[in-house]
Amino acid sequence: MQRRDRGLAQSLGLPLTKRVKESRVLLVGAGGIGCEVLKNLVCCGFGSLASKNGTRNGTLETPETETAAVAYRKPGIVVIDLDTIDLSNLNRQFLFRKQHIKKPKASVAKETASQFNPSVNIEAHHASIFDSQYDVEFFKSFDLVFNALDNLAARRHVNRMCLAADVPLIESGTTGFNGQVQAIKKGVTECYDCNPKPVQKSFPICTIRSTPSQPIHCIVWAKSYLFPELFGTSEEDSAVVAVTEGDNAEEVAKLREEAEALKKIRRIMGKSEFAQEVFNKVFHEDIERLRSMSEMWQSRQAPESLRFDDLVAGIDAEIVQRGQALAVRDQAVWSLHDNLSVFCYALDTLSSRVQAGESVIEFDKDDKDTLDFVASAANLRSHVFGIPLHSEWEIKQMAGNIIPAIATSNALTASLCVLEAFKILRSLPQEQNGLSKPTANNHLPTTTHSTIGGKSESVLGGSKLVFLTSRNTERMITVQNLSQPNRECPVCSPVYAKLQLPANGNTTLQELVDVLKATVGYEDFSITTDMGVIFDPDLDDNLAKPLGEYIGAANSFITVTDDSDAPKVDLVLSIVESLDTTTAEEPPRLMPPKLSLPPKPPKAPETNRDAMDSNGVRLAVAAGVGLKRKREAEAEVEGAVKRAKAAKEAAIEVIDDGGAIVLDD
Length: 665
Description:
This protein has 19 helices and 20 strands. It is α/β, with parallel strands linked by helices. The chain has an eight-stranded mixed β-sheet with strand order 5-4-1-6-7-8-13-14, sandwiched between helices. Strands 17-16-18-19-15-20 form a six-stranded mixed β-sheet, with helices on both faces. The longest helix has 21 residues, at 407-427. Pathway: Protein modification; protein sumoylation. ATP binds at residues 29-34, 81, 89-92, 105, 128-129, 150-155.
């Protein structure tokens, strides 16, 4: 045993230490939390077991066994991240340095972390977790998956893939000084989607375009309307700027005419008068049109339009060069003339990028050129409507839908993730990978029991739902028992199985319907894919078509819903293509071949589940240790009262004056 492993073995015991070294784990995300998690995994020796003489646990390794991912799990850590390193990452993602900017996060994280423990096998993927290569079989090759993501879509995708692969998932996130860690296991705990997530905050189009009253209204206008109209793709149908029932139809039509006028101005991009034309259009002509609608300003202050020539007259230096010098002062609140200078500088820079071949430019909070434009344009519009101006640093936080990331919060949350990983690994069957039974010096119990629904059960080796909160400095870490799965959750309540398709790709929808009727005993049912409903008793036009027309990537799913009077739970199928050419003409097969689907449970009464922010971080924190959640009918009311009281006493207050709050990346 290496010297570095002795302390770990004394703390965890030899059996668990061996299991840690034998483990194969997946880390999705190499940002703020991801860097800390990877460092902890490497220093604790996860995936550091090296085979000797071509054998592992006494079994000869052959090319045939290497291809069987589930049968042979090569110890190691796989890191997947699509992003590259930006300057703003360096204040909290300590595996990166200035020379790494613009390089893939996953590759650099592997290179740096490997120096901490060269014996750990790290594999880096600069790719999207949504790529088809990361299918259910890929996830099945891991003992444990860590989520260190910053967006809802990716979190939900990994959650579903882990449910389908029946692999434990450790979900984590931070918001400022607060954080959470949640262990998820199919059929054992609630999943990431068991709790409803809030929809993205949107603003009425007329508020954004005609009557802004807050800084965020001006920022959204600059980011989602003016910038795309000039340099990107029009966002008339943006989810952030939405047409609501309260919007005046005539006014909406007029605003769309203004957008068309901007497209015409876009044609003179690169000419000396471009900045003046854009400025006068949005800050003079459009404002004067609004001022003429006197009934709109009977109860509010009317906007004051601006003229380009009048403002330029008060600037002595060359305006573009002046704007370039001011743009670096991102924490200062620019004056009206300063914002005009930065606006002209940003227009000149972005126009040069378009003329150089960058036909479509998208806003990115870490793209200084686009941020300069949005910040200056938002401030100019704020001045027009009498709204306080903000520094570019403050606007970046609101425009990027972020709150400042705290490095210590990431570090603490990542350490809690690995502690939960120890519990989950010790809860796995002892015979897995030929592990020996626990010894006397292993002070950690093999099972930890908690009471759920009145029954004493082992829950992932004693894993808890852990909260990091700054409200109480005497007790910053609080826990509560993991909850049972939500019986009505559309993601974790279905039964997951595999659909093996012949390699020839000629399987029809009719063949799938026949297999479902014969194997599962369905009578009245519907079939849904990413393209929508493709079959139900009243929709049989697609039966003769190849099933491949309705299946997207290899990591997509087919959902079968029982519509009979006594419905069974939904069946979710992941696609597995047969590699056996001899079965090319055989019908599709379900795996396992025998499926027993239970009836759908009666609809449970509404409960006051923990609140979530826009990216799924729980805002209600347990006030004490071991808070028991009871799902039985008699205890539903009592449980709801306890959670409401805990939320009132220890809820994390999030002041959302800039739109949705996004987790650290």
